[in-house]
Design a protein that fits this description.
Blueprint lengths: L13 E2 L18 E9 L3 H12 L4 E4 L15 E2 L8 H8 L3 H23 L10 E4 L3 H10 L5 E4 L14 E5 L3 E2 L2 H14 L3 E3 L6 E4 L3 E5 L2 E10 L17 E11 L4 H7 L6 E4 L6 E4 L5 E6 L6 H18 L8 E12 L5 E4 L6 E5 L5 H18 L5 H4 L15 H12 L1
Parallel strand pairs: 2-3, 2-12, 3-9, 5-14, 12-19
Antiparallel strand pairs: 1-17, 4-8, 5-7, 6-7, 10-11, 11-12, 13-16, 13-17, 14-15, 15-16, 18-19
Helix pairs in contact: 1-5, 1-8, 3-8
Bound molecules: flavin-adenine dinucleotide.
Length: 430
């Protein structure tokens, strides 16, 4: 498979805290047969599982092939912010391309995505260690605080710097804004809940079953190391773990980017007071290369930011040093607290800065949903569900999601675009 990063980027990339909190699902042996199915799903993260659950619920025979163990991709190792987001396209550009209503339509889609996950976990009784009442953004500079105040919409709540301490949001911030939409969850518990629900819904689930070949004759043929699956329709749900030749159409249309996370040991009440941070809010800062963080229900602290430009050992060591020093700078009272877990994973950018959800042009029966720009807990889940509904009922997809994605410049060297982008963002964030 033609993948963009060095092999370690496609491995576990460290010790993920969530793996310690959930028993792995017991279903999903390797696929080792010759079989036929109505719909084959490639990739068992939130996107693939949400699509599978909807399709199987409508009575289709659905087979899901996951390359590694359940929860191995970004869906099993993210920050657990079920929040607005999914695109990084500026509003004005969205309006220019898709019409004046497009920004409002995009806002609605983001709200619907959060509601979709909320409804699903409530209806299915999935226990996800939920916390946080919406999401809080913290201004890292006077300028960004002024911008937040200017952009403030009616539903958001502003907190002046002088009032942050009483909200348990202590630190060197210029102010905060809380948007009421969204909540935090344990991403692996949500994933395991989905995997189990898919099994109960009749989805044939296979793990350790990488699809290595995808060809189309009378039907689609998916090859794994030990089997062949024939399918009338295929859903590509591989996101940041995609390959440029599965299928060739994907070449240069997506850009995987590493994101890194650390988690501390549980903080005592005194330690939380020392830093002035005891809030349950999930939060991020206003930097272009933002930090995201939250106190977990067991009093550990999770802190994440962009990952390394490569997966080489030297670069990974550098990013490990950087995330620790950024953490110590923003939360100085905790600079000496043990960090018990540290890991990275791949998120996925698209050249048009929007997710793609829809039929793959020129490939009858092939569909894809991907590219949530680091915000796929809600949007990836919803995208899988939207795509399945489109496949079942021909439900129209919003233009901004199903517009065929363009290609990045530089082809297989496109991740070199990230270095200057990160440098510029670092300068901007000073
Ligand atoms: C460190 C980190 C922190 C993040 N934090 C947040 C956050 O707080 N909030 C948020 O909204 N988003 C966050 N994200 C992004 C979010 O996790 C993803 O957008 C989302 O999980 C994407 O889901 P997915 O199902 O599309 O892809 P994934 O969960 O990545 O699943 C893709 C799956 O496809 C499988 N696959 C790939 N190729 C093949 C093949 N050939 N055959 C079979 N299977 C294959 C992979 O093994 C993988 O399991 C974060 C991501 C990372 C890495």
């Amino acid at each position: 498979m033609k993948r963009l990063y060095e092999a370690p980027a496609y491995g576990p990339q460290g010790a993920c805290y969530w793996a310690d909190t959930v028993a792995a699902p017991t279903t999903g042996e390797p696929f080792s047969r010759s079989a036929a199915t109505d719909v084959a799903i490639i990739g068992g993260g939130y996107t693939g599982l949400n699509a599978a659950i909807r399709l199987a619920g409508a009575g289709l025979d659905v087979t899901l092939l996951e390359a590694e163990h359940p929860g191995w991709g970004a869906s099993g190792r993210n920050g657990g912010f079920c929040c607005l987001g999914g695109s990084i396209v500026p509003e004005a550009a969205l309006a220019r391309r898709f019409g004046a209503d497009a920004p409002t339509q995009w806002e609605t889609l983001q709200d619907q995505a959060v509601t979709h996950v909320d409804d699903l976990i409530r209806a299915q009784g999935i226990e996800v260690d939920r916390h946080s009442d919406g999401e809080t953004v913290l201004a890292h500079s006077a300028k960004s605080w002024a911008r937040l105040k200017k952009a403030n919409d009616a539903s958001a709540r502003l907190i002046e710097a002088s009032d942050l301490a009483e909200h348990g949001l202590g630190g060197d911030w210029f102010g905060a804004m809380t948007t009421p939409t969204g909540f935090a969850l344990n991403p692996r518990k949500y994933h395991t809940g989905l995997w189990d629900l898919a099994a109960r819904s009749g989805v044939r689930l296979f793990s350790h079953s990488p699809v290595t070949g995808l060809t189309n004759g009378n039907s689609w043929h998916l090859t794994t190391p030990k089997g062949v699956l024939r399918a009338d329709q295929v859903v590509l749900a591989t996101n940041g773990y995609s390959a440029d030749d599965l299928p060739d159409w994907l070449r240069a249309r997506y850009l995987p980017v590493q994101s890194s996370v650390i988690v501390t040991r549980p903080l005592t009440r005194q330690e939380q007071e020392d830093q002035g941070w005891w809030s349950d809010q999930m939060a991020y800062d206003t930097r272009q290369l933002l930090h995201y963080f939250r106190k977990l229900p067991d009093d550990r602290f999770l802190f994440g930011m962009r990952g390394g430009l490569t997966a080489k050992a030297r670069e990974q060591k550098a990013i490990s040093t950087r995330i620790r020093s950024d953490f110590a700078r923003l939360f100085p009272a905790w600079a000496q607290i043990d960090i018990t877990h540290e890991w990275s994973g791949l998120v996925c950018l698209m050249a048009d800065l929007l997710p793609f959800v829809g039929p793959v042009p020129g490939h009858a029966g092939l569909f894809a949903a991907m590219g949530y720009h680091g915000n796929g807990v809600a949007m990836g889940s919803y995208a899988g569900d939207l795509l399945a509904r489109h496949m079942l009922e021909k439900a129209p997809l919003p233009d901004m999601l199903c517009a065929p994605p363009g290609r990045f410049p530089l082809g297989r060297f496109r991740r070199h675009l990230l270095r200057p982008a990160y440098l510029m963002a670092d300068l901007f964030d000073l």
